[in-house]
Amino acid sequence: MSLASQRLTLASLALLIAAPALLAWSPGTGSPDAVQGFTVSATDRTDVLSFYNTIYAASEDFAATMAWTGAVDAGNAGTTSAAFKDDVRRRINFYRALVGQPGDITFDSTKCTKDQAAALMFSANRAISHYPPTTWTWYTAAGAEAAGNSNIAYGTYGPDSIDGYIRDDGSNNTIVGHRRWLLYPRAQIMGTGDVPATGTYYHTNSCWVIGDFKSSAPAAFVAWPNRGYCPFPLVPARWSLSYAGANFGSASVTLTQGATNIPVTVISRTDNGYADNTLVWEPQSLPSTISADIPYSVTVTGISGSGVPTSYTYTVTLFDPCVLGASATISGPAAPSTSGAAYTFTPISQADAYELRVSAASTAAWTEGAEDATAAQIQSGTTAGYALRGSYAVHSGSKAFHLTFTDFVDESFTLLRDVIPSPTSQLQFYDRGLFASTTNTLAAEISTDNGNTWATLWSRPGVGLSSPLLDPAFISHSVSLAAYAGKLICVRFALRMSGGAIVISTADNCGFYIDDVTVTNSTQLVGTTVTALSGAATGFTLNAATAGAPLAAGSNYILRVRPQVGTRWFGDSPTKTVTAAVANGYAAWAAAQVPAVTGVPLADQDNDGLSNGVEYAFGLNPVRATASTLMPTPVQNGAAFGVTFTQPAGVSGVTYGAQWTTDLVNWTTIPDTGSGTTHTFNVNTTGRSRMFFRHVVGVTP
User: Fold this and answer.
1) Which residue range forms the structural domain that includes residue 694?
2) Is residue 354 part of a domain?
3) Which residue(s) pair with 622 in the sheet?
4) Domain final residue, candidates 184, 208, 232
5) How many CA atoms lie within 13 A of 587 on its CB side?
C-alpha cells in the first residue's frame, strides 16, 4: 500500500545553459597562426575586433622570425624563414578577408627567390625602381623581373610593407596601384622578398603581385577602408572604391558623419590597368584619435560601364580594436558563506577565455622608488640596451627610473599595482629632466582597462640641449585622480618623441629620471588569486580554491573577471566587493561534520542513496551510510495514510513537503497540516487499492 521515497530540490539555485560560443572567423580564434582561409563578418564589431587582435597581431613579431641569411655587402640575397613569409602572407590575406575577398593568397617559391634578389638590389643601391638599370650593384635579370611585377618598398619590410602598400600614401601613389593589386579579386599567387636594415643599408621589400591570376572572379565592389567596422589604426588618408569594368570618369562621392557632410577631394578616376578600375578620394577632416565608434556613410554615384551598378552606398565605422565595448558584470550575494557561494557574470560575445581574479584590499601607504625590493612590480616598456633603474640621479633610496632614447622608439614603464583611487587621491612623484629635446615629452598616463588604452594625466617637454637648462634637482608633482575615484586603474610613465628631434643616447645625463611614485588615499588590490575560466563560462564559485585560502568571516574579497577575445585580454569587469559571513544552516552543518561535507545538497557524500540535503533535513549522518528506514515513514491510520515528524533542532533553510500518486507518474501535493516545527502529511485512501508516498525537501545551500 505504501512506498517511501525522497526527492531533493534546491532552493535559490538557477541552472544556466550557455549557447556555444560562435567562432569569430574561420578557421577560428583557436588558431592565431593561421595564414589563410579567413572569413570575417565585417559588419560585426566583435568579429572584426577578434580578427584584428588575432590575425593582424600574429604578424607583428615578424622581425624576430625573419632569420635572414644574406649579406648586402657580399651580394648575397639570402633567404628568410618560412615563419616570416607566413607573417607577410597572413597580413595580405587579413586585408583581403576584411574587404570581402577570398583570403587565399599563396606564395610561389620561385617568385620569392626573385623578389629576394630585387630586395637585395634596392638595399645595396639605396633606391627602388620597377626598371632597375643593369649598372646597379648586384643587378640580376631575376631581380629585375621581380621588380617589374611587384609592389616595391624602401624603408620598410615584411608585414610593415604590406601596411604601406594598403595605405598607398605619397605623391606618386594617387592611383593607389599597390593597394589595388593586393586586393584584386582575381589575385591568387604572389611572392615576397625582404632585406632588413644592416649597417648603412635600409629595409626593403619586393612583393610579387602581377600574373597567375584566376580566370575570373565574382564582380564586386572593393572598398578601402572596408565596408563595416574598420580598425582605426588602419584607416588611410586615401579612400578608394574598385569594380571590374567600372568607369568612374563622372563619378562623385558623398561622405557624411551623421548629419554632417564631410568634404572630399577626388584625386584619381584613372582607368589604366592597375588591377580593377578604381576611384580614389581624400576626406578633408578625419579624426586623429577616437574615443567612440564613428560611422561614416559613403555614397558613390555617376558610375558607368556594362553591367556595372550606377551607384553604391555603404557604411564605414571606425573603431578602436583595443576597446571591447562590453563588460563581464558580476552578480551574486554580497555576504557569501565562509563555505563559498556561486556568482554569475555577463558573458562576452566570442570570448575565448576568462580570468577570475580575487583580491584583498589594502589601504596601506606605498611608494615605488625603483628599488630592488619592488622590481617585480614594474613592467618595462624600454628597448633593450640600457638599465631602466639607475643610481646616477635619485630623489631617495639608491635608485630611480631612467627613461632615455636608444632609437626612434618611445620608452615607458608601468607600475604593476591595481589601485582604486578615492575622491581625494593624488598621483605624486618626483622627476628630473636632463638632456632631452624640447619636442620630446615625458608623460604620466593612466589606464582603466588593464592597459589596453591610456589617457595622459600629466606631461612636460624635454628641458633642452644645453647644460644651464637641465633640472638641478628633482621636482615634486601632484596630480588629482578625483575623476577616477572608484575605478580600477594602473599607471605608467612614457618618454615620447612627439614628432621632433631626439637625443639617442643611454648616457646617464640624458632623458628623465622619475622617483618615489605613489597614489595617496587609495585602495590597492593585493594577494590576488587568478583562476582560469573557459570561454563558455557564465559564472564561478567563490571558495577556498578561487580565493587562495579558506574564506574568513568578516573579511572583504574583491572580485573581477576579465575576458580574452581574439587572443587579447581586455579590461576587468567592475569590481564587486563581498564580505564573507559566518556559515549557518546547511553550510554550517556541512562544515561541522567529521570529515567535513564538501558536496552540494544534491551530492551524496557517503553514497548511501540519501543526498546530503536530505540527511541534513532529517538529522541523519552524512558521512556514514544510513538506512532509509530511519527516514520518517508513512503509516496507515484508518482511512488516512501519512506521516508526522518534528524538524530536528538547529535545522534552518529547509522546506518540507510530500506528494502521493497511484501510478508513479502523476504526483499530487499533500498539504502540511502540522504547525511550527511539527509537520503532518496525510492523504485519504478511501477507494484506492494502492498508493505511493514521497518526501519533497527544499534546502538552501
Assistant:
1) 583-701
2) no
3) none
4) 208
5) 15
- The whole-number average pLDDT for the span 675-684 is 95
Q: What's at 154, amino acid-wise?
A: Y
DSSP letters, 85-107, are HHHHHHHHHHHHHHTTS-B--EE
CA distances from 168 to 235, 282, 428 (A): 11, 12, 45
If one counts the domains in the chain, the total is 4
If asked whether residues 293 and 393 sit together in one domain, one would say: no
Q: Check whether residue 185 and residue 274 sit in a common domain.
A: no
Residue 504 domain-assigned?
Answer: yes
Confidence of residue 26 (pLDDT cuts 50, 70, 90): low
8 A C-beta contact, residue 55 and residue 90: yes
Amino acid at 220: A
Residue 267 lies in a domain: yes
Q: What is 654-687 written as a DSSP string?
A: EEEEEEEESSSSS-EEEPB---TTEEEEEEE-TT
Residue 25: the pLDDT is 55
Render pLDDT for 58-96 as a digit per residue (tens, 0 to 9): 999 999 999 999 999 999 999 999 999 999 999 999 999
User: 227 and 279, same structural domain?
Assistant: yes
Sign of CA dihedral 588, 593, 598, 599: negative
What distance in Å separates the CA atoms of residue 204 and residue 138, rounded to the nearest whole number? 15
pLDDT at 13 over 70: no
Give the C-alpha separation, 147 to 131, whole Å: 7
- What's the gap between Cα 95 and its chain centre? 20
Cell of 130: 620597377
pTM: 0.79
CATH code, 400: 2.60.120.200
| pLDDT mean over 489-513 | 92
